[in-house]
Design goal:
The protein folds into 3 domains: 175 residues, Immunoglobulin-like (Sandwich), CATH 2.60.40.3800; 124 residues, Rossmann fold; 237 residues, Rossmann fold, CATH 3.40.50.1460. A 6-stranded mixed beta sheet has the order 24-23-25-29-30-33, sandwiched between helices. Strands 1, 6, 7, 10 and 11 form a 5-stranded mixed beta sheet that branches. Strands 2, 3, 8, 12 and 13 form a 5-stranded antiparallel beta sheet that branches. Strand 14, helix 2 and strand 15 form a beta-alpha-beta unit. It is globular and about 70 Å long. By secondary structure, the chain is of the alpha/beta class. Helices cover 23% and strands 29% of the residues. It has 15 helices and 33 strands. The chain starts with 10 loop residues before the first strand and ends in an 11-residue tail after the last strand. Helix 2 runs parallel beside helix 6, helix 7 runs parallel beside helix 13 and helix 13 packs across helix 14.
Length: 603
Amino acid sequence: MKKILSIIIVTVVLISGLVAAGGQKTIKNNTINDEIIFSNPTINEDLKFINLDLAEKTSMILEPGEPRLPIVTQVYKFPYGTSIKSIDVKLTYDSELYLTKKIMPNSDRTPIGSSNLEIDAKKDLTIYENEDFFPYLNYDYDLGGGRDKQDNIIFLKINLYPVQYSPKNDILKIASKARIEITYDKPTKTITSKDDYDLVIISPSDFSEALQPLVNHKNSKGVSTFIKNLEDIYDNYPGRDEAEQIKYFIFDAFEEMSISYVMLVGSIDKLPIRFTDVNVWETYGIPTDLYYADIVDEHGDFCSWDSNGNDDFGEFNWQHGPIDEVDLYADIGIGRLACSSIKEVETVVNKIITYETETYGESWFNNLITMGGDTFPNDGVIEGEFVLQEVIDLMPDFNPIKLWTSLNTFRPMLINYNINKGAGFVSYSGHGYTQGFGTSPPDVEDRIEYYSLRLIGMRNREKLPVFFFDACSTAELDFNWEGFELFYPPLAVIFKILKGSSYDPLELYPCFAWMLMKKENGGAIATIGATRVAFTHVDNWGIHAGASYLNVNFFEGYESGIAVSDMFIYAQNEYLNNVGPDCLTLEEFILLGDPSLKIGGYP
């Protein structure tokens, strides 16, 4: 996992007809006029650099080597089908400030899986030796179409830069206010559908019979559900490969049936996942189900994730940014049951039905287990525990249980003991592996680790939590045992035994997040984890980006009775609206579970 942390404040204007929410705004004749007032920045000095803060900031410039300056993001939400005609932004820079030191540059993104954190940031000399004011634009904006709670809308995100910096001259140029004018045309027609459904389950036909009890259960709870077999999709929908055929079916179901949720049932060799061409740390090929959720662009057109038509999907490079036009906003809730057998389907279906039927009103659901420690020892902040305290603060109605290395409670036996008592949620922040997770005591390099063999002691039966793994690789669905057996000797012994038997090691010991889901008599009801190496950005000034940012905002999105994928979409939207289009983080984190799962069950 990589390092980053920060709490974000977002100003949102909801445009629905002529209604706006809050602020000094007027809406008249399809024109929004908005004024934003900025306070003076706060200056904090250390021995080497100055760190700036601004009360109104929603995020910071975080590109490695660039000066860390505040960003104020205004997010405007429009009904699906709205046409944005013009955007005019004027910032009033009416004061200057001379500095005695340079503004702090950003350090490089460091994988959470790495034990070497680069603490000393390196300045980008093309910026720091330049007298021009940085950033070189005083605003920019993005448009995207996506889901917001139960509505599909258009997001207009305007990033304002109220503080600009001339590094060579050590001068700040400071704005006192910004004026924004947006003109738009309302949708010309109301989108209607022939049939309304809430959930479609996509699976191989072999799983249909085992899935039917879940379909019956969902329909009995008012969640209109049907099954679509893969064989039917492959026979009737176009596409360059099977993944694109599936996406064209989802696009059709979204437009014609008002689908809100899609459950993919099958391991990736039975139901394909999209591998995107994301180039980060020489890591290529990010497995992601977000491809299936981001169906349309801001114009309502099919979003292929291959805008240049070269058959490489979702091309992205950290040095050059997005290559393909991908807005990354989810239009539907997506989740996968990565089942490799009918038995696994039966196990997970039974868990979902039992959870939604029996959980409501149970006292154990009000427990919130937080697990973590010092992700990057000797870095001045205990990252995992910093993040977990933010999660606790966002969940005041839950009983917090701290399994933290600083309290000497992050122990495998105590983890099993507390999960066995029951919890609504488990939030973990630290290092992750395909077969477990682990983190360090404060300022100690050695890690305390929990591996999949420990799951034998997890017997929480029907008391099933939702897990969020703020970590690397726990949901690596294309995990290959051949390399891992050298990494963890106890599992290597089991692997060698299984290789000589009729059992498939990957079926018994797949990635850790799925092991929790398919576990009988306990485990998890849903898990969110990364399919590749993740990063985080946590420091003394907050949670700024990466896995930890998603973790915190996942819990900020909680409300009673919400569907689990709507919590996840909230976190993804907050990330896009404040941090930006970080393809690695947004694509690699996936939901394993029923996307329509009603958190806490039905009354």
